[in-house]
Structure formats: C-alpha cells, structure tokens
Amino acid sequence: xxxxxxxxxxxxxxxxxxxxxxxxxxxxxxxxxxxxxxxxxxxxxxxxxxxxxxxxxxxxxxxxxxxxxxxxxxxxxxxxxxxxxxxxxxxxxxxxxxxxxx
Length: 102
Prior knowledge:
Elements: H1 2-8, E1 17-19, H2 33-42, E2 46-49, H3 61-70, E3 78-81, E4 90-91, E5 100-101
Parallel strand pairs: 1-2, 2-3
Antiparallel strand pairs: 4-5
C-alpha cells in the first residue's frame, strides 16, 4: 500500500480512517497488525470498525474493543467503533429488498 501511495505521489491528509475487520474469535481471518502497522503509521490513521449486526463477539461495543485489543490492533494505533454511541437509519434509494439501512 505504501508503494501505491508513493507511485501515485499521493499522501493522505487530514483525519484518516483505516477500515478493516478485527476478526471474529476464534477464527483467524483478519489482517495481522504487524502486516498493516507501517501503513497505519504512515497515514497517522485511526483503525475504525462498526459493531456487527449478526451477533457474535463484535456485536456489542465493550466486547468489540476487547477483540481489537486481543488481536493486537489497539497496540499499533488508535481504535474507534464508529457506532458505539448508537446508529442512524439511512435511506436505500432504489433498493429492491431494503428501503433503509442502519
């Protein structure tokens, strides 16, 4: 990713969010912090995620923060759950199944 930024001659500015999955225990299907740490540092990013709508250990804020810590994300960057204080409904224009989404 850093090579892409360099090749494009682009440097992210302002408040930069790095959206990724912190992983659902006990699965190991997430990017390891050591693989993304340099990119997050280079953009002075905050790792962001939202609580899941399907249950599990990332559906509630306190447990979600714990998963992020257990998987090493809070050790490499600031981490924020974007909907920790609630969510809002947004319209889905032209949706065939959904008319709104949280």
